[in-house]
């Protein structure tokens, strides 16, 4: 099936691309990794002003409605420009709060939509850590059927991507809601998190491929650009095919989410595993074809290289996603419906 964006959606992508290009995101990422959240917070405000976070917030809470197609467009651009921070988790928290409703939704959703507040989210079954919990206004946690506002960011754990700061939230905190509705909302929030992560992974892979194509056209061996070598062409073609195969699955998952399809979980899982693996394959291709220079942290390429694998594994590992697709329904522990 072929998916085509309309003129408004394409213009949205172009405007985000222009804004992020002007924002010098590599510098923002390096500052974020060093613990300086100021540039990232400023970029966050610009993204909110462009309506990125409002795409996950219902109109009743001052959003624009939950629009997964537009969200895919936005998060692909965020991946292309290696935007740091818990952008996925803010979206997932918004979906969670909207489903739970009540005072917590009324307090936080308008602030998340406008960028007046940022949030991260930990859902039991997806690891003990919350991304960048030290850089946000709210850390939401779901354990069983309890939604809580964590009292603090907790203990820091190292990540392969220094711009992804994993923290174990402190236990306890304010109980915001409980019951079956929370557990059901957590399933849907995790599904949206996996979907947004898939879009980020696709954008990351596209940026890596574009950078690598440009590099092999300049790097020479024996007086010839290595991009003319047949083996290099084949490697780049395989990478492109992987990314292009992931794109319709991503938009198919968007339509499934938008329509509330009963197989939306499987559709998201298929998009997540395909985009995650394609992005990671693009990182391996980029590293190999850049040669030794690809290992240097000073090269901006390293910012994308280090993000590809964590995105592949976040909010549903490849194995868990495949299990969900094969089951085509509520699956075993660890999948996207857990």
Q: What is the topological layout?
A:
Elements: H1 7-22, H2 25-33, H3 38-49, H4 68-80, H5 87-100, H6 102-114, E1 119-123, E2 130-131, E3 138-143, E4 146-149, E5 155-157, E6 166-168, E7 174-178, H7 180-216, E8 220-221, E9 224-225, H8 230-259, H9 264-290, H10 301-313, H11 318-327
Parallel strand pairs: 1-3
Antiparallel strand pairs: 2-6, 3-4, 4-7, 5-6, 8-9
Helix pairs in contact: 1-4, 2-3, 4-7, 4-8, 5-6, 5-7, 7-8, 7-9, 7-10, 8-9, 9-10, 9-11
Please count the beta strands (DSSP E, at least 2 residues each).
Answer: 9
Distance between the termini: 29 Å
β-sheet strand percentage: 5-15%
The percent of residues in helical segments reads 55-70%
- Tell me the series of helices and strands, N- to C-terminal: HHHHHHEEEEEEEHEEHHHH
Q: Please state the overall shape, judged from the principal axes of the Cα atoms.
A: globular
Task: Give the biggest beta sheet.
Answer: 4 strands, mixed
Task: Kindly describe this structure.
Mean pLDDT is 93; it is low at 330-338. Helices cover 57% and strands 9% of the residues. α5 (87-100) packs antiparallel against α7 (180-216). It contains 11 helices and 9 strands. A hairpin with a 2-residue loop joins β8 (220-221) and β9. By secondary structure, it is of the alpha+beta class.
């Amino acid at each position: 099936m072929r998916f085509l964006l309309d003129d408004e959606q394409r213009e949205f992508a172009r405007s985000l691309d222009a804004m992020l290009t002007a924002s010098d995101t590599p510098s923002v990422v390096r500052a974020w990794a060093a613990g300086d959240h100021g540039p990232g917070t400023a970029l966050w405000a610009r993204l909110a002003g462009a309506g990125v976070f409002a795409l996950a917030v219902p109109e009743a809470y001052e959003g624009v409605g939950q629009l997964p197609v537009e969200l895919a467009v936005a998060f692909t651009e965020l991946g292309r420009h290696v935007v740091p921070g818990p952008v996925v988790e803010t979206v997932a928290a918004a979906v969670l709060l909207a489903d739970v409703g009540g005072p917590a939704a009324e307090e936080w959703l308008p602030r998340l939509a406008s960028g007046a507040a940022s949030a991260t989210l930990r859902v039991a079954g997806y690891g003990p850590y919350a991304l960048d919990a030290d850089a946000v206004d709210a850390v939401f946690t779901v354990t069983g059927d309890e939604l809580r506002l964590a009292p603090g960011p907790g203990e820091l754990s190292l990540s392969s991507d220094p711009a992804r700061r994993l923290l174990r939230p402190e236990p306890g905190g304010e109980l915001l809601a409980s019951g079956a509705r929370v557990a059901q909302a957590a399933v849907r929030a995790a599904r949206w998190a996996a979907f947004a992560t898939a879009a980020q992974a696709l954008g990351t892979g596209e940026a890596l491929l574009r950078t690598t194509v440009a590099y092999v056209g300049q790097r020479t061996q024996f007086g010839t650009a290595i991009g003319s070598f047949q083996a290099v062409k084949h490697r780049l073609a395989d990478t492109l095919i992987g990314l292009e195969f992931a794109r319709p699955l991503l938009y198919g998952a968007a339509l499934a989410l938008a329509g509330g399809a009963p197989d939306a979980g499987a559709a998201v899982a298929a998009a997540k595993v395909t985009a995650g693996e394609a992005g990671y394959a693009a990182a391996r291709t980029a590293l190999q074809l850049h040669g030794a220079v690809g290992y240097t942290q000073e090269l901006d390429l390293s910012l994308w290289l280090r993000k590809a694998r964590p995105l592949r594994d976040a909010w549903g590992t490849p194995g868990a996603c495949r299990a969900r697709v094969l089951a085509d329904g509520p699956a075993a522990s660890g999948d996207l419906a857990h």
